[in-house]
Design goal:
The protein is an all-alpha fold. The chain has 6 helices and no strands. The chain folds into 3 domains: about 45 residues, no CATH class; about 60 residues, no CATH class; about 35 residues. Helix content is about 70%, strand content about 0%.
Length: about 150
Amino acid sequence: MARERIVLVPEEVKKETSLESKIRSGELDADKYESLPEEEQKKVLEILFKIASEKIDPHQGNSVLEFILFGFIRIINKKVKGLSLTQEDKKIEESLNKIFEMHDITNKNKLRSEWLFNYMSYAEKKSGEILRNRQEHVLRKTQVTGKAEE
């Protein structure tokens, strides 16, 4: 009687695991990357992003953005209304300026060509994906409920 081989792990998962292992071990370099098929190159980029994301707690990232945004709003709101800044406001503004100088986008002394990453291209691409997802959601919601809002 012939034995049947049962595969529990899909081939795609095996390939991804193998690529990630090669990335983490340093086995995959620029030359080897260039020789990969386009589909695998895209998968490598996804894995690299996933590896970088592992070190960032999204909750901490959201908190940082919240603090920066509300600190900025506090300072701008007073300036727009023509109010003078208190010592506390000035400390917040000083901290914001330090943060702004850290980031490529808000660092006035850094040319776009010197940025570590093409942030705006990435933001445009992801914005398009988010908007397409939102359109699909509204269409699906309308088809199911008959309403787009709520």
